[in-house]
Every structure is written in structure tokens, then in C-alpha cells.
Design brief:
alpha+beta; Helix Hairpins; Immunoglobulin-like; 2 domains; five-stranded mixed β-sheet; 3 helices; 10 strands; 33% helix; mitochondrion
Length: 227
């Protein structure tokens, strides 16, 4: 859960989010090295005396052509790897369909016969003590821990976006179109997200809450709700 003094990402709760955080740190270290080199060269030019000595132009051109290419490769390879990992969905353990409305979400558990519910934001007046204002909902999305969950995302009216930062997922919900994403919750917990596409007057009031639970608890919840 993010706080108002936080400068970095939320704690990663899925393998994909861990990879994204590592790539973010890798890209920042690369940018820091480039800025340090440029600052050093600028300082050197301003402080050293001018010299009439010349350097072979071919050597300089070779360096300033190959060096940026190496930097781009160092950034592109891990980025492409993560993109392919995010798009790869092989034999999911659970499939959930998330449908965006103005301004709530509907969830359908496709692997169960009659497991469908609407998820509305809990009003501040009804909020239990210790819960988060504008982030808590009346019905959470319960998923089994350490299981591959596929989420099929669409919308009923306007554009929405299903996003949970700590799980590393963000997928647009488009009317008439099915998008899909996947995640694996690596630990039990409650993970908060919000609609990340401006969808109207109450765009800020359609939160997403995903609760990861052990498989036995998930089976008990699903059998209770579908009965």
C-alpha cells in the first residue's frame, strides 16, 4: 500500500512486478552513469586550459557511435524480455472476467457456474475502522495464492482501465473488445488499485481490491458464494 511520503514503487507482490522494479533500477543506474559522464566532461571543459592538440576524428566518431548503441542494447534486451513475459499466458489456473461500468466493476469467475458479483466502492460513512477511504470495496476479488490468474478485461459503456500496481497489471477496458492480462500473487495479502482511465465524473470512485488467500481458503469462499 502506497503512502504520501513514498517515492518508489509499492512492494512487489508478483514475479512480473519484481522484474519491473529491477528493470526500473537498471534503467535509472544507466541514466545516472550517462549523466555523470556528461557532467564530468562539462566540468573538464570548463576547468582545463584550452589545448591545440587534435585527436583522430575516426576514433572519436567510433566511440560516440558504438557507446550509445551498447547503452540502447543494455536497455532494450531486458525490456523486451519483460514485455514477452507479460504477454505470455500458458494454461491459467483461474480465469476472471472484469467488466467496467460507470462507476463500478463486475467480476465473473469463468471456471465456476454462478460466481458473479458487482464491486462498488464502500462509502465513507459505512467504512469499517482501519480500512482505506476511497479504496475499499463491498466485494473483493479473491484469488488463490501462487496460482496463475488470467483476467479478461472489457467495458460496458466507456473506456476504463483495470490496474493493480503491486501486482504489475494495468489493462485497458474497451467496450466491444476483450483484453487480457495475467498475474501470480506471490504472497497472501490485500492489494489495492483504481481505474486508471478517465471515465467520467466518478472516475476516482471505482477502486479495485484483490485479496490473495491460500488455496483452501479460496475454495471455501468460492463454494460458499456459488452455492
Amino acid at each position: 500500500m502506497a503512502n504520501h511520503m513514498q517515492f518508489g514503487f509499492q512492494d512487489a507482490s508478483s514475479p512480473i512486478m519484481e522484474e519491473l522494479v529491477e528493470f526500473h533500477d537498471h534503467a535509472l543506474m544507466t541514466a545516472l552513469a550517462i549523466c555523470s559522464l556528461v557532467l564530468y566532461l562539462l566540468t573538464l571543459m570548463l576547468t582545463e586550459k584550452l589545448s591545440s592538440s587534435t585527436v583522430d576524428a575516426q576514433a572519436i566518431e567510433l566511440v560516440w557511435t558504438i557507446l550509445p548503441a551498447i547503452v540502447l542494447i543494455l536497455l532494450a534486451l531486458p525490456s523486451l524480455q519483460i514485455l514477452y513475459m507479460m504477454d505470455e499466458i500458458n494454461e491459467p489456473d483461474l480465469t476472471i472476467k472484469a467488466i467496467g461500468h460507470q462507476w463500478y466493476w463486475t467480476y465473473e469467475y469463468s471456471d465456476f457456474k454462478d460466481l458473479t458479483f458487482d464491486s462498488y466502492m464502500t462509502p465513507t460513512a459505512d467504512l469499517p475502522l482501519g480500512h482505506f477511504r476511497l479504496l475499499e470495496v463491498d466485494h473483493r476479488v479473491i484469488v488463490p495464492m501462487e496460482s496463475l490468474v488470467r483476467v479478461i478485461v472489457t467495458a460496458d459503456d466507456v473506456l476504463h482501465s483495470w490496474a493493480v500496481p503491486s501486482l504489475g497489471v494495468k489493462t485497458d477496458a474497451i467496450p466491444g473488445r476483450l483484453n487480457q492480462t495475467s498475474f501470480t500473487a506471490s504472497r497472501p495479502g490485500v492489494f489495492y488499485g483504481q481505474c486508471s482511465e478517465i471515465c467520467g465524473a466518478n472516475h476516482s470512485f471505482m477502486p479495485i481490491v484483490v485479496e490473495s488467500a491460500p488455496l483452501a481458503n479460496f475454495e471455501s469462499w468460492s463454494s460458499l458464494l456459488s452455492s
